[in-house]
Amino acid sequence: MAASPKLRWAVCTPAVLGLALAHTLPSAAQVADQTKYLFLMAQEFEQAPGLEGQPLRLDAEGWYGGDYNRLWVKVEGEAATDSRGGDVEVQALFSLLLAPYWDVQVGVRVDRGWGDVDNTRTHLAIGIQGLAPYWFEVEAALFVGAGGDVSTRLTGGYDLLVTQRMILESQIDLNASLQEVPELGLGSGLTDLEFGFRLRYEVRREFAPYVGLAWRKAFAGTADFARLAGTRVRDSTFVAGLRVWY
C-alpha cells in the first residue's frame, strides 16, 4: 500500500533540512580541527649593560600549523654591542601532539658563532615541550652533533600574576654534555646553569616592557675552558627589554 502524502512529507522533511543545513552551515557539519594558525613571539629581546660588551640578547620562537602538527622555529642569540662578536642558535622542528598540552619535536639545530672564532655546527634535535601541572612550562631536548657529541637541555618557566597586567616571570636553563668538546669550550657533565627573574608590564597582551635580573654560572670542565679563554665563570646582571608576540 502506498504511503500517504502526509507520511511521505513527515519522513522526508528531516532529511531535507539536514542536507540544507550541511550546505549552508559547513562549520556545523564537521569539526573545525584542520584550521592553520601562525604564532610569533620574542620572549626576550633585552640588553645587559652590566656585562662586558653590553650584549644584546634575543630569545624568540614561532610556529605554524594546527592542533596536532606544527612547524616550529626557535632562535636564541647574543651579540656584543661594542664589537663584532656573537653567536646564534636556530632550531627548525616538526612537532606532533603527544598528549593534551604536550608536543614531541624533532628537527635540526644550527649554531653559528662569529668574531674571534667563526664556526658553524649542526645537530639533530629531539625534544618534548609542554605545560606541567600548576602551569609550569617545561622543555627538554637532546642534541646529537655531527661529530657524535651529545648534549641535553632542560628549561622551566613560571609566570606569577602580581596584577592583571604586571607579571613576574622566572626561568631556569640547565645544560649538560656527555662528552668534552674543546672547540666549543664544553666540558663533560653539567656545563652551565642560567636563572632569571623578569618583571613585565603588559601595556597590551602583545606588548610588554620588562626589567629583571639574570644569573649564569659555568661548571666543571666548562668553567676550566672559560678561565683559559679569559672569560668569567659567573655573571649576574640587570637586564631590560621587551616581550612581544603576534
Write the topology of this structure:
Layout: H1 5-24, H2 26-29, E1 37-47, E2 56-65, E3 69-79, E4 86-99, E5 102-114, E6 119-132, E7 136-145, E8 150-161, E9 166-177, E10 189-201, E11 207-218, H3 220-228, E12 234-245
Antiparallel strand pairs: 1-2, 1-12, 2-3, 3-4, 4-5, 5-6, 6-7, 7-8, 8-9, 9-10, 10-11, 11-12
Describe the structure.
The protein is mainly β and 246 residues long. The chain folds into 2 domains: 1-30, no CATH class; 37-245, monomeric porin ompg (Porin). Helix content is 13%, strand content 59%. It is built from 3 helices and 12 strands, in the order ααβββββββββββαβ. It has helices spanning 5-24, 26-29, 220-228; strands at residues 37-47, 56-65, 69-79, 86-99, 102-114, 119-132, 136-145, 150-161, 166-177, 189-201, 207-218, 234-245. Strands 1-2-3-4-5-6-7-8-9-10-11-12 form a 12-stranded antiparallel beta barrel. Strand 3 (69-79) and strand 4 form a beta hairpin. It is globular. Residues 1-29 have low confidence and may be disordered.
Short structural description:
With 246 residues, this protein is mainly beta. 13% of the residues lie in helices and 59% in strands.
Average pLDDT over all residues: 86
**Percent of sequence in beta strands:** over 45%
Cα-atom Rg, whole angstroms? 25 Å
Order of H and E elements: HHEEEEEEEEEEEHE
Terminal residue distance = 67 Å
CATH architecture of the largest domain: Beta Barrel
- Please tell me the total number of domains: 2
Poorly predicted segments: 1-29
**Residues in helix, %:** 10-25%
Question: Can you say what the CATH homologous superfamily of the largest domain is?
Answer: monomeric porin ompg
What coarse outline follows from CA principal-axis ratios? Answer: globular
| Largest sheet: number of strands, sense, barrel closure | 12 strands, antiparallel, barrel
* CATH class term of the largest domain: Mainly Beta
Strand tally is 12
For the largest beta sheet, what order do the strands appear in spatially? 1-2-3-4-5-6-7-8-9-10-11-12
Alpha-beta classification = mainly beta
CATH topology of the largest domain: the name is Porin
The count of helical stretches stands at 3
